[in-house]
Amino acid sequence: MHEVTWATRRAYDANARSYADETVGYDKFPGLLAELERFESEIAPGQWVLDLGAGAGRDTAHLHGRGIRVVAADVSLEMLRTTRRRCEHACAVQSDMTALPFRDASFAGAWACASFVHVHSGQLGGALCELYRVLAGGATIAASMKSGDTEGWSAGRSMAGQRWFNLMAPERFATMLSDCGFRDVRTRSCGRPDWYVATAVKLGQA
């Protein structure tokens, strides 16, 4: 496991309760609920999707409430425990995004809210290709990222302490998705300043 991933896990384990309280709803994140609803409209009820970097389970609970079967994946065990308390029927799996513990073609879609922003640039390409591997043909993804051209340790607004932030221009992130095999890659601005969401599909039969 990369040192950044280790540090990320420790930070979220140590601050799980406060982070869950700070991110419990959507009011502080303009446009996020609309992004999630757009993603869920692409998923048929009863299909399995991956909430990658699920955090405290807010989005997992929302998707589950819409009849979608969700696997909540996160590197932080304390975050996953919070997810299970919030959504007892969710399947919660501790996961390193660069080595996902799932079979090929397992999911009909993937939602990654501010997840890849915590991955070191040297590991990001591998993480995106891992996501591609575990998706079935025809699967759709939505991943939110923060725009910029820097990376390093920084204090975020929603949690105390330092976390790794990899800020990346939409064009570069889109290219990395394409390089992994994703098609119909698109990016659009979010309601949150400097944030964007990238959508893409894995071609092939479902």
From TrEMBL:
- Keyword Methyltransferase carried by entry: yes
Molecular function via GO:
methyltransferase activity
Annotated GO biological process: methylation
Source domain of life = Bacteria
Any idea which UniProt keywords this protein has?
Methyltransferase, Transferase
Q: Does the keyword Methyltransferase apply?
A: yes
Q: What Pfam families does the annotation carry?
A: Methyltransf_25
Residues spanning the membrane: none
UniProt cross-references to SUPFAM superfamilies, sorted A to Z: S-adenosyl-L-methionine-dependent methyltransferases (SSF53335)
Which InterPro entries does the protein's record reference? Methyltransf_25 (IPR041698), SAM-dependent_MTases_sf (IPR029063)
Which residue ranges does the record assign to the Methyltransferase domain?
Answer: 49-136
Q: What is this protein called?
A: Class I SAM-dependent methyltransferase
User: Organism, per UniProt?
Assistant: Kibdelosporangium philippinense
